[in-house]
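Sequence, structure tokens reproduced for reference:
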Amino acid sequence: MAVKRNTIISIAKGIAIILMVIAHAEAPGWLCKFIFEFHMPLFFITAGFFFSTKYLHDEATFVKKRVKGLYIPFVKWAVFFLFIHNWMFDIGILNEVYGNEQGGVLHPWSTHQIQQNLWNIFTAMGGYDAFLCGAFWFFRGLFVASILYLIIYKVVDLGISRYPRLTRMTPYLVCLIMLLLCGWKTWEGLKVINLVQGGYRDMMGCFFFGIGFIFRQFVDDYRQIMSRPYLAIPTTLLFGLIVWLFSKYLTANMNWRSTFQQFLSLPVPAILGFLMTYNISQWIDAGKGWFKRFLVYTGDHTLNIFIFHIISYKVVSLIKIWYYGLDIRQIGCHMVIHEHSQEDCFWILYTVAGVGIPLLGTWLCEKAKERIRAYRASSAAQPQ
């Protein structure tokens, strides 16, 4: 008898990726601040949820999975967008007039710059197109964070191996070490010079990765407690309230330039935001229907949304340009057209496109592959 798949984490990832697309679409400021408090840490926590101590003795398998699942997709699509960068200027998707909210713009790259970026992509998981691949830092962040967690876990575990009673404390010690290192880093404004953007996101990602592993140890008890509506509903609302209060008075996110105060402000709302999302995901998972199936499918294909949501926004930008009669070059705005963004509801259309177009493309590719496999199977079954 087949074991029923636990889809709660997939639903949580689906919710998180939708929240990311909403925030990148320049939704109302209060909503974006609320989302930024926890949506990226949530991805690191869900990744750590699936970490297993068996990899402490099979490091090669763990690294191969990280390379296959993160490094290779990053390289493939970063190189793709690298080579179409100048073409994007030729067809008007990018230009040197409109860019990000701070007024920064991109320029066409010389042959030398393209070659240097190519080297950066392969050697440092950097060098990607900042406007078309603005979320690609996550690939490097999770890649480094997960491998760093494995290394530090092994070192700490080895260091306390002579005290068997302490070995159960290893996951907590790893998280404590990462917090202390991140605190030192932000207090002194230090940079890890061999990591793009200085390493803060990678190190905090390692901390949240460890939180996910710790949560896994208690998830059954937690789910049992939260199965009681009289306790789960007020607890979830309380978590949401605390996250909102942090977003209003102690704003923080996984910005690579975070200050020491922002570092201190991040762990609590990030963890509570994950628990809030997990509770909601558990309720959704208990039901049936298209909404659950949609979130599971979305959560299972978050990387495709990471890769293509920004370019998908351009479809809605064309509609917004037509609606307001804007300069056509505003399609080059990163990530969306900034004009009127806090006044209208175009962020909803941007969200639909940012999630829907990548998922539609994924679904069509899957169907095409199924037909090809079916055709090959039927051909092989035909008598010669």
